[in-house]
Amino acid sequence: MRSYSIAAIPADGIGTEVIGAGLTVLEALQERAGEFRLEVEHFPWGSGYYRKTGRMMDPDGLERLKRFDAIFFGAVGDPEIPDDVTLWGLRLAICQGFDQYANVRPVRLLPGIKGPLRDARPEDVDFIIVRENSEGEYSGNGGRTHRGLPEEVATETSIFTRAGVTRIMRFAFELAMTRPRKRLTVVTKSNAQKHGMVFWDEIAAEVARDFPGVAMDKILVDAMTTRMVLKPSSLDVVVATNLHADILSDLGAAIAGSLGIAPTANIDPQRRFPSMFEPIHGSAFDIVGKGIANPIATFWTAVMMLEHLGEGAAAARLMRAIEQVTAAGAPLTPDLGGRGTTREVTDAVCNAIRASNA
Ligand code: IPM
Ligand code: MG
Question: Is the pTM for the entire model greater than 0.90?
Fold first, then answer.
């Protein structure tokens, strides 16, 4: 039997609830498929760990994670600890330490989900945002001078490297090649940001020459917000910088009905390191312990993890089970207008898996 080692890091807030639900569904899937095993090891890292040890993860954390086939991640963030401490101490440490430079965020209106766009049908909202995940505005490059004085200054420098931009463009073009429509929209802001963003555009045009089969267009990030709302059907694959894609992907999740269903994969396409799979929604402390966190983002994330591991059939089975539950209209959690609990949605997806055909 094929076997994969998975590092589960539920971390903070509803992270524990949704990763627990995700593992339950994955267990049902393994039983149903009978073809592969996931060997899951749990790591207690996160803000609770920080309170006890002063560290978000152990100093040898990356070394220990390295041998896993994938990382299944919950959420980081705690109301009492500064966000930059929790984020850089764990999630970004993994993303950057393992050079997971491609962040993939599918946006799809699942059957039965009522999104906020009045006229949108499921087939109108079906695109993938590729987020540059290793540099750009999240490079951590900058500093503070004259702290506490009236002349205090802070800089936050965006870094764009030829290697970094080229590899994310290639990834996006290659992804576009696998899609029926073969379209790529490059998001930019080169009208105002005349160094990094002009460079970004130039490299997009260079890489495009290697992909004559892909129809590429370019759009400014501000105009992109309106296009996503007014003409989502014109989008197929979208590539954007770290910050632009961060913002646009929240809008994407809203268009798809809820932040509670949006999945993401932090991928090292060269497979030198494990890739990391997580829901986009974050730790959501306002609903912790209420049992109403939407587990669908984590289930969809598990679909992406299975695809990455090469278990395409199991991935498709899980996605069908999710869609069967959304299409039925219940149970769904309150963020989707339902009255269901995390547990009920999880049970419904497990039942759909058990009832699914070979
Ligand atoms: C995301 C999140 C994070 C990000 C936050 C938690 C810093 O919003 O994954 O989109 O901006 O990268
Ligand atoms: Mg975000």
Answer: yes
pLDDT digits (tens, 9 = 90+) for 207-228: 999 999 999 999 999 999 999 9
SS3 of residue 226 by DSSP: helix
Domain coverage including residue 146: 116-255
Got the DSSP string for 245-271? HHHHHHHHHHHTT-GGG-EEEEE-TT-
| Pocket probe mutation, ligand 1, options 246, 278, 281, 301, max atoms within 8 Å of Cβ | 246
Query: pLDDT tens digits for 53-75?
Result: 999 999 999 999 999 999 999 99
Nearest CA, atom 6, ligand 1: 282
CB 259 within 8 A of CB 335: yes
| Best residue for ligand 1 mutational test, from 78, 87, 100 (most atoms within 8 Å of Cβ) | 87
Nearest CA owner, ligand 1 atom 11: 246
Are 46 and 167 part of one and the same domain? Answer: no
pLDDT at 358 exceeding the cut of 80: no
Around ligand 1, the residues with Cβ closer than 6 Å are 87, 246, 280, 282
Q: Is residue 107 assigned to a domain?
A: no
